[in-house]
Amino acid sequence: MEVALNWYLSLSAVLFTIGTLGVLFRRNAIVVLMSVELMLNAVNLTLVALSQSMGDASGQMLVFFAIAVAAAEAAVGLAIVIAIFRSKVTVDITEIDLFKG
Amino acid sequence: MFFLLATLAVAASIGMLVARSPVSSALWLVLTMFCIAGLYLTLNAAFIGVVQILVYAGAIMVLFLFVIMLLNLSALPELSDINWTWGAAFVLGIGVLSQLLYMVALEFDLGVEPVSAEQAATSGSAESLGLMLYTRYALHLEVAAILLLAATVGAVMLAQRRFE
């Protein structure tokens, strides 16, 4: 491999941080879900980079299942967003405060 | 090639972070997914790269765009981001980044020699992954199938009901 493993790990750290910032910054629930997907992708990149540099395909199996779970998570998360939108007509996460007494 | 794709991925994800409308956020994220798929190809992980394009860029992002379209978000007023949380979020983000980069900089010993590109191409091929998927990980595959079925049924149920 011509590019060192550390570059891949650093890139995925940067992408993970951008995803974290997206979750913290944005108020649109759909964009927050997209940022979570970005964080999952950053972790997947770490797993694939380590798996390929160690020659062990188990890490890639983990990525495969993580992608399957991410698809399920996106479907359920968006269904929750639709359900909230129907009752409150907003996707602003600061206005979704049912627990706030 | 790596540096081109990495720069593009970081730029596209920052574009997702700062885009005003959720539709352009989603399109920036699609570009990020394609860049990550390209990075998998530079790692010789061809199968995962193709799955990334098929599932993420193909299915999940279409789901996101479909929901944005369904909710007709453009009819709503644009959400302005609150100012006072920016500082806290920024500090937290820098904290996370420095912690992760510190872990990378430690250069912990993996205990194995890095393998050659040919070996990596073999371990990342659809053949070897498929062989593992249907032998050692067969039970996991069944569980993932049940999970996807449950998520589909649950998503339909959740999106249908009206709760007050």
Descriptive report:
The complex is a heterodimer of chains A (101) and B (164). The relative contact order of chain A is 0.13. The longest helix of chain A has 31 residues, at 58-88. Chain A has a single domain (5-88), classed as Helix Hairpins. Helix content of chain A is 77%, strand content 0%. The mean pLDDT of chain A is 86. Chain A is mostly helical and 101 residues long. Chain B has two domains: 1-75, Up-down Bundle (Four Helix Bundle (Hemerythrin (Met), subunit A)); 125-164. Chain B contains seven helices and no strands. Chain B has helices at residues 2-18, 22-42, 46-71, 84-105, 117-123, 126-134, 138-160. The longest helix of chain B is centred in the middle third of the chain and has 26 residues, at 46-71. Chain B is globular and about 55 Å long. In chain B, 28% of the residues are buried. At the A-B interface, helix 1, helix 2 and helix 3 of A face helix 1, helix 2, helix 3, helix 4 and helix 5 of B.
Chain-wise SSE layout:
The complex is a heterodimer of chains A (101) and B (164).
Chain A: H1 5-25, H2 29-54, H3 58-88
Helix pairs in contact in A: 1-2, 2-3
Chain B: H1 2-18, H2 22-42, H3 46-71, H4 84-105, H5 117-123, H6 126-134, H7 138-160
Helix pairs in contact in B: 1-2, 2-3
